[in-house]
Amino acid sequence: MRKLFLFVSLFVLVNTAWAERIKDLTHLAGVRDNQLVGYGLVVGLDGSGDQTSQTPFTVQSLQNMLKQFGITLPPGGTPPQLKNVAAVSIHARLPAFAKIGQNIDVTVSSIGNAKSLRGGALLMVPLKGADGRVYAMAQGELLVSGLNAQGSDGSSITVNVPSVGTIPNGAMVERLVPNPFQSGDFITFNLNRSDFTTANRLAIAINETVGPGIAMPLDSVSIRVSAPRDASQRVAFTSLVENITLEPGDAAARVVINSRTGTVVIGARVKIMPAAVSHGTLVVTITENKQVSQPGAFARRGSTAVTDQSDIDIGLKGNNTFLLPANVTLQDIVDGVNRVGATPADIVAILQALKQAGALRAELMVI
Question: Which tens digits make up the pLDDT trace of 37-50?
Fold first, then answer.
């Protein structure tokens, strides 16, 4: 019986180009989110907090917090057993142009051995940027989608991840992030995918719509555009430019192979030069036969026994050769590979051999 396999091929068939907006192809230089991180305590847990004997930093953090309120634990005493407290890390994204007083979402993750953060509340925590300055303050009750339950006999069940939670609008912005958008005489659009053709077409489209000499491509990624200095005019100008449409350049001829899943993605510009491909599969067949062994007729001892006998056969199956003519289509490539019954691993080997033979006119990427 012929062995079936799954061969997933995605084809980018571009017979006619289509127009895309500049805002879908680029992003403004300097207009980006900023990462924030913090460390704090979650309290109010129902006995699912850190085991303080294994996480001493949780006790130390609580002691430091209590000192700020004038409470000092006796030195050298027994460390408190805090089953309803967990040490956590907090991270968030500070959007571009975020103003003081605005709220942002935060994610809270346990860094100790807490079993669950469900029902807990985060105490006030400063969130810092990469420069070490505080940009937001986080606090609030956690929303935890995970669930952990344990029986008295040691059996337990866990749904999703109970050690991670979120606080919608859980942090308030306290400091502005400098942004270069409103400074200087230019704004710069950076392409999401580096391409000289697209960069040149983008500059031409802006100059044809706004005026000659407004846009200038700097390289395969950046296009510098002259912009008004007035803030309101610059916003309106940027809105006009980012809605201009153009036809982006075709992607380079490329074949991408995922060796783990067998997924093959072939670009529309891929070409195959004349080549012959031979493929053979080594087949190993093992057959198990049951045999009955009995003692002799006059034997005094012994008993009937069932033994296994294995027959092993090794051979080649599916030795086929097919010819790839010049200027074949993507469908011809797939039909030829399927005709020899290649598995995903064999497909990778065939494409690599075609590349080494100089018959595959494309960049071969194995991920």
Answer: 999 999 988 888 88
